Amino acid sequence: MLMYLRVFKESFVFALNALRNNKLRTFLSLLGVTIGIFSIIAVLAAVDSLKKDIKGSLSALDNSTIVLMRFNFGPSDVPRWKREQFPDVTYEEYQQLKKSLPDLESIAFVLGVPGSSSIKYQDVTSTGVDVGAVTHEFYDIEAFELEGGRFFNEPEAVSGSGVAVLGHEVAKNLFGEPISGIGKEIRMFGRRVTVIGVLKKQGQSLFTGSRDGQAFVPANFARRVFGTKKGSVFPQIIMKPVEGVDNDEFIAMLEQQLRNMRGVKPGEINNFFVNQLQGFADFIDNITGQLNVIGIVISGFSLLVGGFGIANIMFVSVKERTNLIGIQKSLGAKNKFILSQFLFEAIILSVIGGLFGLFLVWIVSIIASQFTGDFEFVLSPFNILIGTIVSALIGLISGLIPAISASRLDPVEAIRTGM
C-alpha cells in the first residue's frame, strides 16, 4: 500500500513537471480532454436542468390527471389524416361526464383562446397575454395560489360572467405595485371585464411558460366571444379521478361513456384521445434520455481526440525517460512498478483536463442562468462525479499502451538508448 502511495506521489510530481516543462504540448494534449468533458457534462447538465424545469412545471398537477381532447400528447398509431377528422370535445360532453362518470373527483372544461391578447385598463395596455378560458373547477385541479381576491365561482362560470383572474405580471403591468386591481374594470376582447382575483407570482418556466403572464376568464364567456367552430378554439376536458381509484378502469369507463355519447360503433377506433400526465411525464423522460444519448455520442468524438492527445504525450514521456526507466529497472524496479507509474501519470494528466472542463461547465451554467431568467442550469454532484470518472477512464485507457511499452523495456537497452 505504501509503495502505491509513493508511486502516486511520484507520478503526481512527474505530471506537474510535464505541465511545467512542456506547457504548450501539455496544453494542446489536455485541451481535447477538457473540451470532451465540457461537452458531455454540459449536455447532461442542460438536459437535467430542462427535465427538472418540466417536472417542476407539471408538479401542480397530479400525475393521475387526465386530459381529454382530439389531440394526443405523444406519438400515435392513428394516421394524421384520420386524427384531423376527429371532432373537438364539447361543453355538453363535459356536462354529461360530470353527471354520469363515477369515481370523479373533479372535472373542468378548458378552451385554448387562439393567439395572444391585449388587456387595457384606462390608458395602460398589457400585450401578449395568454388567456385561458376555463370552468370554475380548474382552480382546484391546477392548485392555484391567489395573491388577492378569488377565483370565479360556479354561477359565474355557468352564466359566462365578465370576470377575470389575472396573473401577477399582467396585474403589475396594468395597476403597478402594490397591486390593487381587485374590482376594477378592464377591457379584453372588446368587452368590459371585472378583475376579481390576482394569482401569486410563479416565475418563468422554459418549457410551459408562466402563469404570471396569463389571465383566466369563464369558458362560457369565451364561447360567446369566439364561438365553438372547429379550429377557432382548442377545447379540452381535464379531470382527476378519486384518489386510490384504478386509473385503467376509470379510463375504460370514460372511453365507453364518450363512445356511447358520440355513437362510435363497436370495432371502430376512438375519435378522441385520453392523455395522462403520467404518460406525458414518461414521454418527456424518453425524449430527455434520447437527448442524453445523442449528446454523449457526439461529445464522445471530442473525448476520442483527447484520448489520442494523452496517449501521444505519454509516448513522448516514455521516450524522454527511457534512460531513467532503465536505471530504475537495473536497481530492481519491477515491471508493475513502472506500469503503475505511467498509468498514474496518464490518469492524473487526464483528470486535470477533466477538472478544467467541469470548471468551464460551472462558469457557463452560472452565466446561462443569468440570461434565462427563472430557468436555472444546474451542475449536479452526480454529473461532477461522472465527469471525474470519465476523465480518469480516458487517462487509464490512453496511458495503458505507453505504460505497457515502458514496463517491458530491457534495462540495458533502455540505458544505452537514453545515453
From TrEMBL:
<feature type="transmembrane region" description="Helical">
    <location>
        <begin position="384"/>
        <end position="406"/>
    </location>
</feature>
<comment type="similarity">
    <text>Belongs to the ABC-4 integral membrane protein family.</text>
</comment>
<dbReference type="InterPro" id="IPR025857">
    <property type="entry name" value="MacB_PCD"/>
</dbReference>
<feature type="transmembrane region" description="Helical">
    <location>
        <begin position="293"/>
        <end position="316"/>
    </location>
</feature>
<feature type="transmembrane region" description="Helical">
    <location>
        <begin position="337"/>
        <end position="364"/>
    </location>
</feature>
<feature type="domain" description="MacB-like periplasmic core">
    <location>
        <begin position="26"/>
        <end position="256"/>
    </location>
</feature>
<dbReference type="InterPro" id="IPR003838">
    <property type="entry name" value="ABC3_permease_C"/>
</dbReference>
<feature type="transmembrane region" description="Helical">
    <location>
        <begin position="27"/>
        <end position="47"/>
    </location>
</feature>
<dbReference type="GO" id="GO:0005886">
    <property type="term" value="C:plasma membrane"/>
</dbReference>
<protein>
    <submittedName>
        <fullName>ABC transporter permease</fullName>
    </submittedName>
</protein>
<keyword id="KW-1003">Cell membrane</keyword>
<keyword id="KW-0812">Transmembrane</keyword>
<dbReference type="Pfam" id="PF12704">
    <property type="entry name" value="MacB_PCD"/>
</dbReference>
<dbReference type="InterPro" id="IPR050250">
    <property type="entry name" value="Macrolide_Exporter_MacB"/>
</dbReference>
<keyword id="KW-1133">Transmembrane helix</keyword>
<dbReference type="Pfam" id="PF02687">
    <property type="entry name" value="FtsX"/>
</dbReference>
<dbReference type="GO" id="GO:0022857">
    <property type="term" value="F:transmembrane transporter activity"/>
</dbReference>
<keyword id="KW-0472">Membrane</keyword>
<feature type="domain" description="ABC3 transporter permease C-terminal">
    <location>
        <begin position="296"/>
        <end position="411"/>
    </location>
</feature>
